[in-house]
Amino acid sequence: MTATSEDTAGPYAQFILFGDSITQMSNNQDIGFGFHPALQEAYSRKLDIINRGFSGYTTAHAIQVFPRFFPSPEVASVRLMTVFFGANDAAVPGHPQHVPLEQYKENLKKIIQHPATRAQGPRILIITPPPVNEYQLEFFDKSKDIPHPSRTAAITKTYAQAAKEVAAALNVPVVDIWSALMGSTGWQEGQPLPGSRDLPNDEKLSSLFLDGLHLTPAGYRIVYDQIIQKIADTWPDQHPDQLRFVFPSWVDAPK
């Protein structure tokens, strides 16, 4: 068995996960299930899953660091990439991580339209920021010694919507994690937002978060399932079940 035609820059093409701490922590063994190791298992011997998650980063940080790590076609072939920012950008105005909504949208566009991205032409998935739980965030904010609330359910919703708008404008598939996590609580559009102080604390939503911002294994499971489903729907030939091993199984390997 030979490598696929897309593996021209080396034995394994790359699937880069670009994001903030939610991406970085998805590889934390202390948490348990994360979407990075789950993707590694799914694409084992087919693609290299590269975690480029940066704790605390906003899209303003992202556009600065992106060209410094993203490989040229001469170095590696990037076949797939997730862009998963907004959880920090959506911090309340006045917070040091806050990025204004329109600037957030422009920054996402800059990443996707960057010359380095165009040189590779990867299949890109924009992932919306997840919702937040203001009740749990109170303890997170105190641990960071920052004013509470650092984020609100309502503001975060607008950033999730903005990510979807950018995806639609650029004709890039979107993984709507915000809606998937909120939908798991039974929430429907027009209802008060679980996670906000307008409602009592929602136990189902709380089960998806470690601290109101970062995800539990149950939350990461939803992220993974949504990514895999979007790949299946958009690029079925790139679903892990449809890709061959880069190197043959031991039965077929030369002896």
From TrEMBL:
Record domain SGNH hydrolase-type esterase: where: 17-222
Signal sequence bounds: none
Gene3D superfamilies: SGNH hydrolase (3.40.50.1110)
Origin: domain of life: Eukaryota
Stored Pfam families: Lipase_GDSL_2
Name by which UniProt lists this protein: GDSL Lipase/Acylhydrolase family protein
Organism the protein comes from: Penicillium chermesinum
